[in-house]
Design brief:
Structural class: alpha+beta
Helix content: 25-40%
Number of helices: 2
Distance between the termini: 24 Å
């Protein structure tokens, strides 16, 4: 199945055509990862933006070339709606 999304994990794994199931797997892997590699990015192929998710489930919105132009922490309300939506809760 083709999707417009990708995932890149801090430990080097990548997923093309990422689905919500792939995001769930990335969250679980990140929760079990050592602190040095405990993050992943999920982005859209055509947009220069992504979500950066850390082990503590802190979520950042990043944008620009190579996602370095802007980085801001999502508000608690947005986090509370994002995580259950991804985990299907």
């Amino acid at each position: 199945m083709e999707t417009p999304f990708w995932i890149e994990k801090a430990w080097g794994d990548q997923v093309e055509n990422a689905t919500m199931d792939d995001v769930r797997v990335a969250i679980q892997e990140t929760l079990n990862m050592d602190d040095e590699h405990a993050a992943f990015w999920v982005g859209h192929y055509e947009n220069e933006n992504a979500l950066e998710v850390h082990k503590d489930l802190e979520i950042f919105y990043v944008s620009g070339d190579n996602q370095t132009t802007s980085k801001r922490n999502l508000t608690l309300g947005k986090k509370q709606s994002f995580i259950p939506a991804v985990l299907g809760q």
